């Protein structure tokens, strides 16, 4: 089964669907590679006007896949660096995607999934969606997503939510700037279609130039340079004694020693 499904809503509007509902559409190396490959393919299409990213099942994305986390317990620092680079490449592609990107959030949006939302141009969320920067609960650090999140919600708010790992709702996500609009099951399609119609009314080349301009603004303060440090930080944290204890406690469904 394809973990990422590509469909065309029109000949100019593409839709990528996270399609691993039995695992909460959680991130692992296979899903991220498929996701990244599709983004590369779509970015080279000169006729593309907009990209919709959604999910099947109950959740948009619950963060890191539990089986992937279990395997990572035995990863070397070098293997963890390769894993971190997969996520960084995916986020960079989303952040620098040449046309507008809409994401639809629902269910649980935890950990690395918040990095995905932070790279979108417009985010709709169903009213029961819950969000959390959950890494600190596992003894980990949201290193790779942190620059994108800080640019989306501001460093001040990132401090609170990353340090507490608290769960927050759609209204809080809207106030933070992580989500643009709340949707219900009854009006989701209408809100999605309205956004697409607005994009289609804009001039294609102007739209791409605006995206390029905004990408330059978001990266001119050294985003790519700081990510090399964050990749190393993520790897070191995963292989640290605290990171190992936290992951084992999570996998064994027991409280970590610091809880």
From TrEMBL:
It comes from Photorhabdus luminescens. The keyword Cell division does not apply. It comes from the Bacteria. InterPro entries: ClpP/crotonase-like_dom_sf, Enoyl-CoA_hydra/iso, Enoyl-CoA_hydra_C, Enoyl-CoA_Hydratase/Isomerase. One of its GO terms (molecular function) is catalytic activity. The chain crosses the membrane at residues 99-125, 131-150. Belongs to the enoyl-CoA hydratase/isomerase family. GO terms for biological process: isoprenoid catabolic process. Keywords: Membrane, Transmembrane, Transmembrane helix. This is Methylglutaconyl-CoA hydratase. Gene3D superfamilies: 2-enoyl-CoA Hydratase, Chain A, domain 1 (3.90.226.10), Lyase 2-enoyl-coa Hydratase, Chain A, domain 2 (1.10.12.10).
């Amino acid at each position: 089964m394809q973990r990422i499904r590509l469909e065309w809503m029109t000949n100019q509007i593409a839709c990528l669907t996270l399609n691993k509902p039995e695992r909460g559409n959680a991130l692992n190396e296979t899903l991220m590679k498929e996701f990244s490959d599709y983004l590369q393919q779509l970015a080279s299409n000169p006729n593309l006007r907009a990209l919709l990213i959604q999910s099947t099942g109950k959740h948009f994305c619950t963060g890191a896949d539990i089986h992937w986390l279990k395997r990572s317990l035995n990863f070397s620092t070098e293997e963890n660096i390769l894993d971190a680079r997969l996520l960084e490449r995916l986020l960079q592609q989303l952040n620098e995607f040449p046309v507008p990107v809409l994401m639809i959030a629902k269910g649980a949006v935890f950990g690395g999934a918040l990095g995905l939302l932070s790279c979108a141009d417009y985010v709709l969320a169903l009213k029961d969606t819950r969000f959390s920067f959950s890494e600190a609960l596992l003894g980990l650090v949201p290193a790779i997503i942190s620059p994108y999140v800080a640019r989306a919600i501001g460093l001040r708010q990132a401090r609170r939510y990353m340090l507490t790992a608290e769960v927050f709702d759609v209204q809080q996500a809207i106030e933070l700037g992580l989500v643009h609009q709340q949707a219900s099951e009854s009006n989701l399609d209408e809100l999605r279609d309205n956004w697409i119609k607005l994009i289609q009314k804009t001039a294609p080349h102007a739209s791409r130039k605006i995206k390029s301009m905004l990408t330059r603004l978001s990266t001119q303060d050294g985003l790519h340079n700081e990510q090399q440090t964050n990749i190393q930080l993520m790897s070191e944290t995963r292989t640290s004694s605290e990171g190992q204890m936290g992951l084992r406690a999570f996998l064994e469904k027991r409280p970590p020693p610091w809880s």
